[in-house]
Amino acid sequence: ETGVTQTPRHLVMGMTNKKSLKCEQHLGHNAMYWYKQSAKKPLELMFVYNFKEQTENNSVPSRFSPECPNSSHLFLHLHTLQPEDSALYLCASSLTFHDRRETQYFGPGTRLLVL
Amino acid sequence: GNSVTQMEGPVTLSEEAFLTINCTYTATGYPSLFWYVQYPGEGLQLLLKATKADDKGSNKGFEATYRKETTSFHLEKGSVQVSDSAVYFCALITQGGSEKLVFGKGTKLTVNP
Question: Most buried pick, A9, A13, B31, B47, via CB within 10 A?
Fold first, then answer.
């Protein structure tokens, strides 16, 4: 248990569906992250929020839409996804974004399958 | 740009064998280095880290030493257990640059009884 929870753990959706992934951290951190983990590829950073403000968007397609209503919660809204978007989506948090000594703590991930 | 290169897996060992997983990096500035572990069906967990040259990170019998001269951070364990079967990721983050955590591709370790 890392203090970062994600729901749902598994999700199957069609290409026309709209769904949302939720991440919650109980660590008092101020920075939160979304990563994508695909088979045989390094983890890809998607978005970074620092004190609720988006500071990074790594050229992610607009069919992924993040939302950070407060420092403890992070959402990833999904719509009109493609089969190649099937992956494990990991949420992480850290105390701050700008200190390289800070550790990122990861949630268990949401396994997404797009049909 | 920053990058991490890990030895290709999978690695299969017998219980109590010695483990080394190689990791080298390229980075601007002075990175912090990390090893994360991902057990089957779970997210990533920090295993150990080192924030400056010659630091040794250690946890659960695993060790890695930050070698600036060889830009390496190899993971070692003297005697592996079946419960160590997982995927291991080497990662770095720099300050004053992109400040993003950059991961290697991961090395899958299977330990047989």
Answer: B31
